[in-house]
Each structure stands twice: as C-alpha cells, then as structure tokens.
C-alpha cells in the first residue's frame, strides 16, 4: 500500500511530507492556528476556508512563511505579534481595520464606521 503524503508549507514553499501538519492556516489572510481552532472549525462547517487552507509541520515554518498567529486559538501569541506590529508602525491585517458599513435603515448617504463625517438627508 502506498504511503500517505501531505502537502505542507514552509518558508521556502510547499513540499510533500509523510508526517501530517500540526497547524493549519489561511493562505489569503496569512494566519495560522491549531487544527482544533473553534474559529476555523466554524468556517469549515459553513463550507468556506477549505480551498485557501494550508498546513504547517511546525510553528517556525508558519512564522517563516510570513503567517501570523490566530487571534482565537493562539491569543497570547497573537497579542504579542499585534503589539510588535504596532511598535514597528506596521499595518494590521485588513480585517481588523474599521470598514464602512451601512446601518440598517440608514439613507444611502449615512455611512457608519468610517472616519468621514456622517451625512444626513434633511
């Protein structure tokens, strides 16, 4: 019987391994976390997250590939990473920045969550 092979990601790129990954990640969001992460499991249950998912053998591989720790399952490491980003003046992931969202029932000119002044129709 052929041996099972797993595609893992390292700082130098993807490779085949006979050992399964110990951490999972999201390719587009560039984050990694535990395989039993509640946030990742919810996303997988909704049918998302399967295609952009990547796996790492070790945490060092994830860091080396430019991924950040998950804010849910690796909270302590995420807070350290976030503080280091703020100290260096680096940008945080796009998801943590305020987004322009339209409040339910608001007119087309009322937008909340942005730095712009809210306009109201008289």
Q: How would you summarize what this structure contains?
A:
With 122 residues, the protein is an alpha+beta fold.
Q: Which secondary structure elements does this structure contain, and how are they paired or packed?
A:
Layout lengths: L5 E5 L2 E5 L5 E4 L4 E4 L3 H8 L7 E4 L2 H6 L3 E2 L5 H14 L34
Parallel strand pairs: 4-6
Antiparallel strand pairs: 1-2, 3-4, 3-5
What does this 3D model show about the protein?
- The chain has 122 residues and is an alpha+beta fold.
- Helix content is 23%, strand content 20%.
- It folds into 2 domains: 6-91, DNA Methylphosphotriester Repair Domain; 92-122, no CATH class.
- The chain is built from 3 helices and 6 strands; from the N terminus they run E-E-E-E-H-E-H-E-H.
- The chain has a 4-stranded mixed beta sheet with strand order 5-3-4-6.
- The protein is globular, with a radius of gyration of 19 Å.
What's the Cα radius of gyration? Answer: 19 Å
E-strand count: 6
Under CATH, the topology of the largest domain can be stated as DNA Methylphosphotriester Repair Domain
Q: Tell me roughly what share of residues is in helical segments.
A: 10-25%
What is the 3D form?
Answer: globular
Assigned CATH architecture of the largest domain: 3-Layer(aba) Sandwich
Q: State which percent range the strand residues make up.
A: 15-25%
Pick out the low-confidence regions: 95-122
């Amino acid at each position: 019987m052929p041996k099972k092979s797993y595609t893992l990601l390292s700082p130098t790129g993807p490779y085949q391994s006979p050992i399964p990954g110990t951490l999972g990640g999201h390719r587009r969001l560039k984050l990694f976390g535990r395989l039993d992460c509640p946030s990742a499991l919810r996303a997988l249950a909704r049918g998302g997250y399967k295609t952009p998912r990547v796996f790492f053998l070790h945490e060092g591989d994830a860091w080396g590939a430019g991924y950040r720790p998950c804010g849910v399952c690796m909270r302590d490491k995420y807070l350290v990473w976030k503080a280091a980003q703020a100290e260096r003046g680096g940008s945080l992931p796009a998801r943590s920045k305020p987004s322009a969202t339209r409040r339910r029932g608001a007119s087309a000119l009322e937008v909340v969550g942005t730095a712009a002044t809210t306009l109201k129709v008289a």
